[in-house]
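G.,

No rush on this.
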Amino acid sequence: LFVAYANGANDNFKGVATLYGSDTATYKHAIALATVTTFAGSICSLFLAEGLVQAFSGKGLVPEAVLASPDFLLAVAAGAGATVILATLLGLPISTTHALIGGLTGAGFIAAGPQLNLTHLGSGFFAPLLLGPVLAVSLTIPFYRVMRVLSGRLGIQRESCICVGAQRFIPVRQLQYSAALQQYILPALAPAGVDITVGTRKDCVEKYSGRLFGISGQSLATGLHYFSAGAVSFARGLNDTPKIVGLLLVVEALHIQFGLLAIAAAMAVGGLLNARKVAITMSRRISRMNDGQALAANLVTALLVILASRYGLPVSTTHVSVGAISGIGLLNGSADKGVMSGILASWLLTLPVAAIVGALIYAVAGSFPLS
């Protein structure tokens, strides 16, 4: 349950990060959507992601005798949970999947020694983890370009804007500031006492014009953006919950249905109480994007994670989501490479830190055995 709480705190907001980052939703509305859809994904994982439950129970990685030991599972959970909660307090979006693998590796090395199945570790865990962010970046960029061409042919076009005050905006097409401001905008707003400040491109909120099926382009983009964010959160619950349930399954601490509900609840509480720092990093610091760009990133993330869950592949929602958001940032030129480098460094440290903590906990637990 501690691992589930830490997972919720670090991961719950990732699915809706683009909603908050693009100012489409407030923090409260975004985290509420994430909580509901993640919980739904957790419940559905009981029926759709059985393969991940078995994969993260440690079967095939260490001998059965080790798996039956509560000391081993305690060490795995402590290593993973401590690593994820530390990253959460630092505002770093890391992978619970990666942390669980680190805990399994560290505790497994101490418990099983040469019997630790390194071949299974590489093919069953590391390969999908490394492939996830690469696929996300590779697919998001061309997918967004196709979406942009298609929307243009359907009459949906992006418009730049002038931001007036805190909320209002005036859409314009390729506004020539020197002429248009003096001739049209300033005279219209001067009687109302409104001041206009011309900022940089990154300060401008892009909206969509045109209509499709009788729906305005902006309403359509916003609605699809919300749907895609919910889909990513659903996929995250579907992918992460069974990994943690696998720890309970081995020692039969709870019946699997009750264990799943307890873990889903702990994830929800963790997200509601401790998600804000990671939310800021994911939403504001990696890159900026409009609704259409966010939609492309979310759809790629949801598709990859749902397919991985269905076929029992332990990809990281964090890696895939950050990869997709970074891909958009690289495409539109807003990616903060310093922030991306810091996140990459935290990913590289996740596994060894979790492995060291897991190994230490197992060594200590061996002196005071639980079984």
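When you get to it, here's the other one too:
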Amino acid sequence: CTYCIVPYTRGKERSRLPENIIKEVEQLVNEGYLEVTLLGQNVNAYGKDFIDRNYTFGNLLEDLAKTNIKRIRYTTSHPRDLDDYTMEVMGKYKNIMPHLHLPVQSGSNEILKRMNRKYTREVYLEKINKLKQYVPSLSLTTDIIVGFPGETEEDFNDTLKLVEEANFEGAYTFIYSPRKGTIAANMKNQIDPKVKKERVQELMNLSRKLQGAYIEKYLNKEVSVIFETIDQDGYIYGHSSNYIKVKAKGTKEDINQIKNVLITSFLDGQANGYIV
């Protein structure tokens, strides 16, 4: 992407051998771990650098789903490389969590082109609509950059429209800042910092509204949670299968356990409830 410095600092993408990853996950299962997250700058590009085998991210995801790991997540994905096979695998296996973080970055085709993202807003929406057919309970989060060079008011409005159309559960919003050595840093029509701040605030307000509406759908319903931490007041915190942050009263014995929680309220993107 024209704004990204990562390829210059980390070099080309490199894929670990699948047999090593599968072995590591099996070892983690034996040690008592319940959940793994596959991490990569673009996990969907996994396997493209293999010379001697045709093995994609979808293949890896399916092989890991056949192990005894209780939960699998992955991040981050590039919309360009999210293929039908990966979507099919997500819908096929219950231990692949119904949550996807799929950065769109902008809802304007002109800005996406300037970013060199290699997809359009129409392609993005088509992919998530197809994925929701495989995974009806999908929770979708995204990244959005505000104030990219040349972004007009119309471009920004296109982003707001896309956020509503996609109905994101959450959006991580960032103000564009130039990175020395990238193409975007030398582009004309850099956006005034005041305009950037105004736009990102409007986008954050919309994101919070959608997040609240999403969590509200789970009020008085049970969700499955792995609890991860406990505070000094005896409240435990974890994430549901669809990545809602959940708080409940509990003990140290509840940590690293999967519990059903009845959601009773929510505040600032966090659901509150009690273990049932």
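The first helix runs from residue 6 to 10. The mean pLDDT is 94.

Enjoy the weekend,
O.
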